[in-house]
Amino acid sequence: MISFILHGGETAARMVANETKLFTLAESLGGVESLIELPAPMTHASVADSPLAIDPGLVRISVGIEHVQDLIDDLGQALKKC
Predict the structure, then answer these.
(1) What's the pTM?
(2) What 8-state DSSP symbol labels residue 49?
(3) What's CA 75's distance to the chain center, in Å?
(4) For residue 29, what pLDDT band results from cuts at 50, 70 and 90?
């Protein structure tokens, strides 16, 4: 599992999630498929205006059993678009 923050905030995070082909948008990470989550608008939306808030550009990825280079290429092409 990896996490990273995009400088473009939630807009950039949504764009990356939408542009990936091999990662499935999900709130619960884990399993054999590669998953992508945007915690700020998904699991942490209820604490957006509190000290518990997280960066809206945060992206979390759980890597599954797909071929490594395919995942790198897919994420790379999505990141280039944001």
Answers:
(1) 0.88
(2) T
(3) 10
(4) confident
